[in-house]
């Protein structure tokens, strides 16, 4: 007998271009062992990715950001979601993000189909900065039986944005990763660190702080792996600071290829400027043995535990001092390595999937 079908999706192309799509593939692959099937809706593009969704549906709407065109975009997506609901008759909707177009379309098209929404971070940040995004977030939360958030810090922010009206719907489910059999990066001797920054290059990731930190130090080298809107500006800044020989830029790498590169480095720099939902690549780096030097923003201290050291967000001089202090102490580097591995073991994705399966079963039961 076929298990319940979940309709979900993200209004991005079907590719591992961000933590949200990667996390969804990890989770919904494993939800199959709990009897669930998945129909994942997405925008055109890519398609060569070996994802874990049971089936996919490519949408026709052309993405529009917040502004005068957003409502028309959401209306087109809503009609597409109504068509998918009519054809596939899913038992449950999982709306990824609390403020973007596809989640809003699912909320408006849901009808009698129960809906659970899942916060990812970028959506909540957008709602804290834009009135239109905040209105969308409130509409999605209002339509949801449960709202899953990956951290207590995220729950507090969603509660604030919704005026405390739906506090009873908020459920904290820590995100997780597929853990490697053993760490691959080992502590290394030497006075200079090989540093890594990996992920999407946008304003909130604040990669410029990692680059500017190197201007306050000597000898350390930084590799930036990723793509995004900030790449050209980051390249120019490294040149302006005379760091072209110490800062290397490399294009986005598929996940497994990035994991292989972890062995080339001594620490990950995680420089988020504001709220961080989880920090997928940071926990992945920890699982492989890399300590994380991270900005002290809401949620990260709890997530990364003692397997990392923090500095004030945006403070490149403080980050530089942190880099130098770690480089100067082999004992600290060994201790951070072990603490990083130990911390990451607490984020096994099987726990995330078990919680999500149980909450989905509750939503289905409550709708009968």
Short description:
The two termini are 20 Å apart. This protein is α/β, with parallel strands linked by helices and 368 residues long.
Helix content: 40-55%
Q: Give me the Rg, rounded.
A: 21 Å
**Which topology of the largest domain does CATH recognise?**
Rossmann fold
Low-confidence stretches: none
Please describe the biggest sheet, giving its number of strands, its sense, and whether it closes into a barrel. 7 strands, parallel
Order of strands in the sheet with most strands: 3-2-1-4-5-6-7
General description of the model:
There is one protein chain. The protein has a 7-stranded parallel β-sheet with strand order 3-2-1-4-5-6-7, sandwiched between helices. Helix content is 42%, strand content 18%. It folds into 2 domains: 191 residues, Glycogen Phosphorylase B (Rossmann fold); 154 residues, Rossmann fold (3-Layer(aba) Sandwich). Strand 9, helix 8 and strand 10 form a beta-alpha-beta unit. The mean pLDDT is 93. By secondary structure, the chain is an alpha/beta fold. Helix 3 packs parallel to helix 5 and helix 7 crosses helix 12. The chain starts with a strand and ends with a helix.
């Amino acid at each position: 007998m076929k298990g319940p079908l979940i309709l979900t999706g993200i209004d991005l192309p079907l590719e591992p271009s961000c933590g949200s799509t990667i996390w969804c593939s990890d989770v919904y692959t494993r939800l199959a062992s709990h009897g669930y099937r998945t129909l994942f809706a997405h925008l055109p593009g890519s398609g060569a990715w070996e994802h874990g969704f049971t089936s996919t549906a490519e949408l026709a709407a052309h993405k529009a950001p917040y502004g005068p065109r957003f409502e028309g975009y959401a209306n087109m997506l809503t009609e597409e979601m109504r068509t998918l609901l009519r054809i596939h008759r899913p038992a449950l909707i999982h709306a990824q993000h609390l403020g973007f177009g596809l989640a809003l379309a699912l909320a408006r098209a849901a009808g009698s189909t129960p809906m659970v929404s899942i916060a990812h971070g970028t959506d909540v940040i957008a709602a804290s900065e834009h009135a239109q995004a905040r209105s969308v977030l409130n509409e999605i939360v209002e339509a949801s039986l449960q709202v899953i958030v990956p951290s207590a810090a995220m729950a507090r922010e969603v509660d604030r944005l919704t005026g405390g009206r739906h506090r009873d719907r908020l459920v904290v489910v820590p995100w997780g990763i597929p853990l490697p059999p053993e760490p691959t990066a080992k502590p290394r001797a030497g006075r200079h660190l090989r540093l890594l920054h990996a992920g999407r290059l946008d304003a909130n990731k604040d990669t410029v702080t990692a680059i500017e930190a190197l201007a306050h130090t000597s000898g350390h080298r930084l590799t930036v792996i990723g793509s995004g809107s900030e790449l050209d500006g980051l390249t120019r800044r490294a040149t302006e600071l005379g760091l072209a020989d110490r800062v290397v830029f490399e294009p986005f790498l598929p996940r497994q290829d990035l994991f292989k590169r972890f062995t080339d480095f001594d620490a990950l720099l995680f420089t988020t400027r504001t709220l961080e939902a989880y920090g997928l690549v940071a926990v992945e780096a920890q699982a492989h043995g890399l300590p994380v030097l991270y900005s002290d923003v809401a949620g990260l201290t709890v997530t990364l535990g003692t397997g990392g050291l923090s500095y004030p967000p945006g403070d490149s001089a403080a980050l530089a001092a942190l880099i130098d202090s770690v480089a100067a102490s082999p004992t600290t580097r060994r201790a951070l390595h072990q603490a990083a591995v130990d911390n990451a073991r607490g984020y096994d994705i099987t726990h995330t999937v078990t919680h999500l399966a149980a909450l989905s079963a509750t939503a289905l039961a409550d709708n009968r």
